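Input record (one chain):
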Amino acid sequence: VQLQACGGGFVQPGGSLRLACAASGSISSINNMGWYRQAPGKQRELVAVIFVGGSTNYADSVKGRFTISRDNAKNTVYLQMNSLKPEDTAVYYCNANRVVGPVYYTYWGQGTLVTVSS
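The corresponding structure, as predicted from the sequence alone:
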């Protein structure tokens, strides 16, 4: 599975950005896709995940502001980020996980930088 992420950039507090992650390759057995982020000096953390059945999970810090969605026809997952705060500044990574029998595979896209600053 290859993941191609895009959509990062610079935005002022209160602004919005949308990240996109396109998956290619052996995508038929993908169980879930999501976004993680890593701020300078901090550990990578889960932001949002969407499962094959459509259910979603969000970090408490982004609930009500971020929305994860997917376009199955385009094999693409989106992260709509609204009401952005300076503490949302981080490198955002797309993630996908496959389950093939008893084996669990995880994949990462390249990071995309989101900077929220006035």
